[in-house]
Structures are given as C-alpha cells and as structure tokens.
C-alpha cells in the first residue's frame, strides 16, 4: 500500500516539475482500492487481520491534449489533433509533441535535446541566409522560407498510445511490434504555436495533499495491525 503511494507521489512530483514543458503529458497512478480499505480499517474490530498489500495499476500517461499557445517564435510548432513530431538519435526514431525547436551548428532543425527533426527528405536543413521571420508552415507540415519549400515536417500517429514507451518527459519510442501510422487528414501542423503541458498545477497540489493523507492512513493501519498482533500474542501466552 505504501509502495503504491510512493509511486503516486513520484508521478505527482514529475507532473509538477514539468508543468511548464511544452508537449508534456501528465503521469497518473490509478488507485484501485485504497478508499475502500481506508474506510474498512477505520471501522475494523481490534482483532481484524489486514493485508499489508494493495493492487495498483502501473504508472500510465494521460495523452489528453494540452492547450495551444501562440508564441510568435518562428521555430515553435504544434500539432493540432492526433500525431507526433519525429526526431532521431543514433539511427532510431522517437516521437514528441514538444515542438520547441532550434537550429544547431550544422544548420539542422533539432529539438531541445539536439535530436534532428525529421522531414520527408531526412534531416531538415535551414540555410544560413534564411530570414527566420519568413519561415512559415502549412497545415500539412510543409516548411517554407518565403516562397521556397525547405521540407515537410514528418508526423506519425499510433492507434494504441498505451503501447508507446516513455523515454523522457516528452519523448516516446515504440516496441518492436509497433510501427507508426500516417496521421489523419484532420491533423494539422501550426507554426509559432506551442502545445502546453496538460498538467493542472492546482489539481496536482490537491493530489499531493491527498497522497500525504493516504500515507498517514497507511501508517495508522500498520500500527493498528501491529497492536492487534501484539494483543493476540499476549492472549496466546496466557
């Protein structure tokens, strides 16, 4: 039971730490039976023997979209609808909703972790003489500098988001038996826009308070069980 609350507290802490990170998806720990156990424990007779464990679902990712926010920064991008931007490291593709990109020393469009952003032609290169204020992106992801087409931002979608492997606050990979799919026609790419985290700070703070109270309840249940066992030992020894 306490282990479950530890997982819950870790998820809350990470949600709060990344509440301002674009594209972040909050973590969630589903609590199965704590409320029921807590109510029963408070009303339990002194000779009741309680289990010390509790079933929890693993930590899951809440893929609910975050709010879209205009930034007016030419290298900020967001996806409206399903889908992820595609980045690459060491020959492996990863997927992200964080479109706060930059240009590295080689002229490549990269994410905050210096992973190249993938276009349909490979790495997206921004020529050094391009005026960034002239950058624009079409809903299909076509990136232009004025009238010149540079590339098209590659996007990917997945039918079962629960299978994605979380490898960073806003970064995901796929298991070997899973491949990306084409995004739907309704999915669009937006420029000078970022998607905010879907974390609500006030809700996370309320969950943290609830978690601390749950810790206290767990401690009371353990003390109660210890007292019950002590009394049973005394009765058997008489």
Write structural notes for this entry.
This protein has 238 residues and is an alpha+beta fold. It has two domains: 2-63 and 199-237; 68-195, no CATH class. Helices cover 26% and strands 27% of the residues. It has three helices and 18 strands. The protein has helices spanning 2-17, 34-42, 201-237; strands at 27-31, 56-61, 68-70, 77-80, 84-89, 92-96, 102-103, 109-110, 118-119, 122-123, 135-137, 142-145, 148-152, 155-156, 165-168, 171-173, 188-191, 193-195. It has a five-stranded antiparallel β-sheet with strand order 14-5-6-16-15, with no helix packed on it. The chain has a three-stranded antiparallel β-sheet with strand order 11-12-13, with no helix packed on it. Strands 1-2 form a two-stranded antiparallel ribbon. Helix 1 runs antiparallel to helix 3 and helix 2 packs across helix 3. The chain is elongated. The model is unreliable at 46-57 (pLDDT under 50).
What is this entry, summarized?
26% of the residues lie in helices and 27% in strands. The chain has 238 residues and is of the alpha+beta class.
Provide the low-confidence segments as ranges: 46-57
What would the average pLDDT be, to the nearest integer?
Answer: 87
Strand runs, count: 18
What structural class do the secondary elements suggest? alpha+beta
Total separate domains: 2
The largest beta-sheet arranges its strands as: 14-5-6-16-15
User: Could you describe the largest sheet, including whether it forms a barrel?
Assistant: 5 strands, antiparallel
Rg, Å, rounded = 25 Å
- Backbone shape: elongated
Q: Count of DSSP helices?
A: 3
Topology pattern, helix = H, strand = E: HEHEEEEEEEEEEEEEEEEEH
């Amino acid at each position: 039971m306490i282990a479950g609350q530890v997982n819950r507290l870790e998820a809350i802490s990470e949600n709060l730490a990344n509440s301002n990170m674009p594209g972040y998806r909050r973590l969630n720990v589903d609590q199965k039976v704590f409320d029921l156990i807590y109510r029963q424990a408070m009303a339990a007779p002194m000779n009741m023997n309680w289990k010390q464990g509790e079933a929890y679902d693993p930590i899951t990712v809440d893929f609910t979209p975050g709010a879209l926010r205009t930034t007016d920064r030419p290298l900020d991008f967001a996806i409206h609808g399903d889908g992820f931007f595609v980045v690459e490291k060491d020959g492996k593709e990863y997927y992200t909703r964080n479109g706060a990109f930059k240009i590295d020393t080689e002229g490549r469009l990269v994410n905050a972790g210096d992973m190249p952003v993938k276009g349909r032609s490979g790495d997206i290169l921004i020529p050094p003489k391009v005026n960034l204020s002239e950058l624009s992106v079409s809903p299909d992801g076509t990136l232009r500098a004025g009238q010149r087409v540079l590339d098209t931002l590659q996007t990917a979608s997945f039918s079962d988001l629960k299978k994605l492997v979380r490898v960073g606050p806003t970064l995901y990979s796929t298991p070997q038996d899973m491949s990306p799919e084409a995004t739907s026609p309704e999915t669009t790419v937006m420029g000078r826009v970022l998607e905010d985290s879907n974390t609500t700070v006030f809700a996370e703070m309320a969950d943290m308070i609830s978690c601390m109270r749950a810790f206290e309840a767990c401690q009371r249940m353990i003390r109660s069980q210890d007292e019950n066992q002590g009394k049973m030992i005394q009765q058997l020894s008489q």
